[in-house]
Each structure stands twice: as C-alpha cells, then as structure tokens.
Write a sequence for this structure.
C-alpha cells in the first residue's frame, strides 16, 4: 500500500516582485515506492519546487507538507533534511577530494556513526560501481560517474524520500540507463523518488508526472494518459529524394503540422486536431514527447532567421574538417587514438560515445584548443598545427560547459566575442543587433551572463559562435540540459545553416539529436569503433532479438560488442 510522502497545495513563489512567479499555484503529491517525474522546460520552476520541499526556500503562498512536517518551520526543516536525500542539479561535491573523501565528508555532515561507515561505503560503492574509482579525484570522473557519486552521497543515510534534480543532464545513454536502474531498485525498498527532468524519455518511465511550464501545473497523472492526447495524430513520412532536415523545415511551416523531428531518413510529425494527413504519411505510435510539445502549443516552426541572414558559402565541395590519425596522449594514457574522418561542406557529422570516451579530446584537437600527440587536423584547408589563427578565424566554437564570461553582461559578451572574431564598425553593430533579435536577448542585455537561465546561456553561447558567419561550426553538447522546445529551436538554426553551406561537427548524448546527423562516428575508449549514417548504425545491430533498434539500442549494443571483443582478446 502506497503512502504520501509529500503534498503541496497552491504553492506560489516569486523572486522578483515585478516579474512573473517562479511557481504559480502548483499542487501535487509524491508517494512511496514509485517515481514521480517533475517535468518541464528550462525555467519552468522545477528546481524552485524541490528547494521549497527541502526548506532551503520559503513559499510566498500555499502549503507544503513533507514527511508530515512543514519545511517552512525551522525545526521541522531540520527533521525533514535528516530523512531525505537530495541531489542538486549542479555537481555539488568537492572536485579536489577523492570519491572516498567525498563520502567521508558527507558522512560527517549527515552524522553517520563511525561503526556503520565501512559497511555503508562498501554497499554504496558496489551499488554505484565506483569501488574501483574510490581513490580518484571527483573532478576527474566522467559525467556519469559524477552523477553516481552524487547519488551515493544522497543515500548515505537511507532516505524515505529522494529528491533528484535533473540527474541525467550531460550523461551518456549507458550511464543514464545505469542511474535509472539504480533508482528503480530503490523504489522496491519503499523509497519515494521525485525525479526532475527535461528528458522526456525519462519522464515516460515515471509512475506519474507533474508537468510544469512557466510556473504553472499543466498536467498531473500517468505518462500514458498524457500521451493519449495525441493518439491518431502522429505520423511518419519516409522519403529519399530530399535531405530530411530540409524537408522537415518546409513541413513545419505548413498549417496543421505542429511538430516534427528527423529519424534517420524518415520524419516524425505531429498534426493538429482535425488536420488530415497526406497519403504519404503512415500512422505511428505516439510518444510522451509528442504530447509534451502539443500541450505546450507546438514546436518553434521550421524557419531560421539566423540562416536567412547568413551568407551562403559557395566555394567548393571539398572537405572542410579533416582528422588524419589524430592521437592525444596524457602520459601513459591515450585519450584519443588514430581518429580519422573527413567532413565535406554542408554536412552534419556527429561524435557519439560514453562519458570519458575521447569525444571532447578529439573535438578540442580539431578546434586548435589541444595540441595532438600525433596526426593532424585541418579546418577549411588550414593545418591546425601551423595555421592555428587562420583556422580559428574560419570556425565557430560552442563549448560543452558555458564558456563565456559570467561576470560580464550579455551585451559585453557579445561585443567582446565580436571583436575576437574580427568584427568592427557598422558590421559589428549589425551582427550583434541581429543576434540580440534572433535569440531574444534584448531584455537580458544588462544581465550578468552567469546568472542567466540555462536556455538563455546556450542561446548566448550559440550567438557568440555564429555572429562572424563561420564556415565550420563546432558544437560540443550544445543542448545538454535544455528543454525539448529550445533543442528544436537550436536544430532549426543548425539545419538552416547547413543548407547555406556551413559544415557542422557536433557531440551529443541525445540520440534523437544524433538522427539529424548525416554521418556518425562512435568513439569508445579513445578509438572509433563504428561509423556511418544513423540508419547504418541501427542496421548493423538489427537481428532476431532486436528487429527494429533505436539509435540508443545501437549505441549500447556497439559499445557492449567492443567490450566483448576486448575481453576475448
């Protein structure tokens, strides 16, 4: 029998008296023995609600009850914190301490008795598969291992309620599956889980979801009940005569089509109510993501003003980005070994791989940010060893982590990067004005970049990377942590730029994003273990046990096959 662990009714919270509320009359519950998904776009109010439940923030209105106590009361808040586990959105551990030292520190903070520590640490390190890394500095862990360590620290005293604030952000598909399996094991012990996420494949696995947007609750119930709202309105269109992303851009501008995504050579479309599909469209089962976008009013459309205002690159059809035997060693460790590929003009090439596989190392070598130990990289015909400055002037770079200047305002960042890329005078003013308009940055111009919501940080980072109209665009996990609507907006721009002749190299952990790539390379343990189109990789693992694999299925199967070959050797 389930019991309620948390209840909130008509909760409101404001941070700015003149602005909209972060939470506006939100109500819901969290029960034992299940996973409640707190789902919504960036800035929807998810983190605010979780912090209210811990007593770290106080509500402006409404009531909250956690474990039968009031988190707004100081004495109750202390009692609540002793019985819950909390894993914040940002990595909250100490990167200059080892895994074991972090566990010891958090055991001290949670007053875990000395006599219980050896057994508890052993159990948690085994549970998270971190025992062999107990002596490694937390800052040197991969993204997936950092999240596992955060989970271990949240479980030092077995909680009645576990609050997880976007635990899957920046984590590869294998690590995300591991995290999910761990959390499902915890529910079997009667622990209640609140899992905040903008990843809709995660939301679909939850027992119930609370869908919030702009501080308001839009849905409370089982994921399947929300998915049912688009039943009969989701279709697949398969064609071979046009680039899928270009066709999708046209389709999204047609009346009656409210959303669409690329899936290899096919396009998945969601139609508005009472819209009639064309003869070429085949019905396909709806997903939670289809209903999510529908309830938010549809996607951003297929038009990219960024692409429309970018010069068309016409000069030649040769390779724009080349890796020839690229290798990087750090002492005895080979982070990337003998990486070779060539990307022609106007192509999207994706690098996939687990956390720590060598993707970012390869990426940084091709950007001229990291000197290779062997091999060579070329961008727009320039050798990155000899002509680094000339090569960098032809490319735009968006880093995995927000790499702009947090203490500078949005306007100051735009001006600084315009100067770095050689823009001046009227041209500089024109391009900055366009970026402000296209990425909706006007009302944030005076705001310090470091205080922006994640979605606007990413918009600013992309604006800074493209304002000088580069031939090659390097995007290192450009949409990690942002919501599906913002991700669609980004890919509308990326696909539009490619149609103008821009060449794109992208890393991503989103397998649906990888479907937009013309070709992919799967990097694992520093080497390329598979390459081809998204459909090629899926076909390579298809069989009786996996007749219609997804790209995530292919990713995991290829990594597992590589491990098996390594063990056999």
């Amino acid at each position: 029998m389930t019991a309620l662990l948390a209840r909130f009714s008509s909760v409101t919270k404001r941070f700015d008296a003149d602005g909209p509320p972060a939470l506006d009359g939100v109500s819901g519950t969290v029960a034992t023995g299940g996973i409640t998904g707190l789902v919504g776009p960036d800035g929807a109010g998810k983190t605010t609600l979780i912090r209210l439940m811990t007593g770290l923030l106080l509500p402006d209105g409404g009531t909250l009850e956690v474990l039968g106590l009031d988190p707004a009361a100081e004495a109750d808040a202390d009692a609540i914190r002793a019985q819950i586990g909390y894993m914040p959105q940002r990595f909250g551990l100490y990167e200059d301490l080892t895994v074991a030292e972090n566990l010891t520190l958090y055991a001290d903070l949670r007053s875990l008795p000395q006599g219980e520590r050896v057994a508890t640490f052993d159990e948690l390190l085994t549970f998270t598969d971190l025992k062999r890394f107990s002596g490694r500095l937390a800052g040197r862990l991969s993204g997936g291992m950092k999240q596992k360590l955060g989970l271990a620290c949240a479980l030092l005293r077995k909680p009645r309620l576990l609050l997880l604030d976007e635990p899957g952000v920046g984590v590869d598909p294998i690590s995300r599956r591991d995290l999910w399996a761990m959390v499902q094991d915890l529910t079997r012990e009667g622990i209640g889980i609140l899992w905040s996420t903008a990843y809709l494949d995660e939301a679909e696995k939850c027992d119930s979801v609370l869908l919030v947007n702009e501080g308001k609750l839009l849905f409370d119930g089982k994921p399947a009940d929300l998915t049912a709202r688009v039943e009969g309105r989701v279709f697949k269109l398969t064609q071979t005569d046009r680039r899928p992303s270009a066709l999708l851009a046209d389709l999204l501008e047609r009346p009656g089509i409210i959303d669409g995504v690329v899936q290899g050579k096919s396009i998945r479309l969601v139609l508005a109510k009472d819209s009639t599909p064309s003869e070429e469209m085949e019905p396909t089962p709806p997903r939670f993501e289809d209903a999510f976008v529908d309830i938010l009013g549809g996607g951003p459309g297929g038009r990219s003003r960024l692409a429309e205002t970018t010069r068309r690159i016409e000069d030649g059809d040769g390779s724009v980005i080349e890796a020839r035997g690229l290798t990087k060693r750090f002492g005895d460790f080979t982070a990337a070994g003998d990486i070779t590929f060539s990307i022609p003009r106007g192509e999207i090439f994706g690098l996939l791989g687990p956390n720590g596989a060598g993707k970012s190392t390869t990426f940084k070598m091709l950007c001229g940010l990291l000197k290779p130990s062997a091999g060579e990289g070329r961008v727009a015909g320039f050798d990155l060893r000899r002509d680094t400055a000339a090569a960098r002037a032809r490319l735009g770079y968006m880093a995995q982590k927000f790499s702009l200047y947090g203490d500078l305002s949005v306007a100051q960042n735009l001006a600084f990067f315009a100067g770095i890329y050689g823009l001046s005078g009227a041209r500089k003013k024109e391009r900055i004005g366009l970026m402000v308009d296209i990425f909706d940055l006007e009302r944030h111009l005076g705001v310090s970049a470091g205080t922006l919501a994640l979605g606007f940080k990413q918009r600013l980072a992309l604006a800074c990377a493209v304002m000088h109209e580069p031939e090659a665009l390097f995007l290192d996990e450009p949409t990690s942590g942002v919501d599906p609507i913002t991700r669609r907006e980004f890919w509308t721009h990326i696909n539009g730029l490619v149609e103008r002749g821009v060449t794109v190299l992208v890393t991503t952990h989103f397998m649906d994003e990888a479907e937009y790539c013309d070709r992919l390379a799967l990097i694992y343990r520093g080497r390329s273990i598979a390459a081809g189109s998204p459909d090629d990789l899926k076909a390579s693992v298809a069989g009786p046990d996996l007749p219609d694999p997804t790209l995530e299925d292919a990713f995991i199967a290829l990594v597992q096959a590589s491990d098996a070959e390594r063990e056999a050797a």
User: Anything to note?
Assistant: The mean pLDDT is 89.
